[in-house]
Task: structure prediction
Amino acid sequence: MKLLAEKLEKYSLDIKSLKEEIVRLNTIYNQCFDRDIRREMTEKQISLTRIKIKLKRLLRENLEELKLIKKHFPDFFNELKHDNYLSSSILSILWVLDFKQLKEDDARKKLEEVKSKRKQLRKIKKEVLSFLNVDYNSLKKFNLLDKILDKKPERKELLEWIEKKDALLKQEGWLILLNEPFITNYLKNYLFEYRMIVDQEKRMTVDYNYSSNMGTLSESEMDKSIREIRKNKNRIYRKCAHMLYSNTTYLKKLKSSKRFNESFDTFDFAFFDSIPLNHIKEESWVYEMSALLS
Result:
């Protein structure tokens, strides 16, 4: 099986090639305004978008290996972060690598702290929006603003800071929610919806086959409905998978032969088993990576 580093190298080369081809085609198009060239450019853009989506999925599905790269090969990890063709995708999921297992009591305590800070941010934003000019004295009551107020930010700067701070708190909250029992509750909700869609897909397929044989159905309309159902099913599958890839310890637990969880049934466990998971032997992996990078 290929190492993640090898796959990322190929993605980098493929994205580089596509971007260079788009630039080349754009240069030609600006000289002749040929519709065929324009069409080819559009096709290349679509290919580029698709490959970037696949890259993000690859990274999410291999977070455990990405963590190991960060741990054992920090210089190479830094190169990946600054790669012209990989950096945006890697940086977008970098925060997930900060996930840490927490005991339930600690997780609940930290979650309440995050909620309290976000509630305070909403009050701050409401007050700042009421200002024509920032009233620094009236904002001193908010302890979240202790450091930023020393810089005497303008109204716009302060609102931008609030948005960024809130985004960071959302990420912090999400990392807490990846712990038990929160992740279990999220999965139960997703799997309930997934099960409903699977049942809907089965009924729709039966109706489609019956109506097609009777000659009473617009096949194109039914095809469209079934495609939409499958699109939603795949969307929920990816959400669950990405959540579990962020906490592989919990995923391994759910896939274990000794597993037991009264929150899930046979259908749910079959779903978990369908999620691919690379079982990495850290020592062997480090040896292979060292050989690759030497």
Residues 182-283 form one domain. The radius of gyration is 25 Å. The chain has three domains: 4-98, 104-177, 182-283.
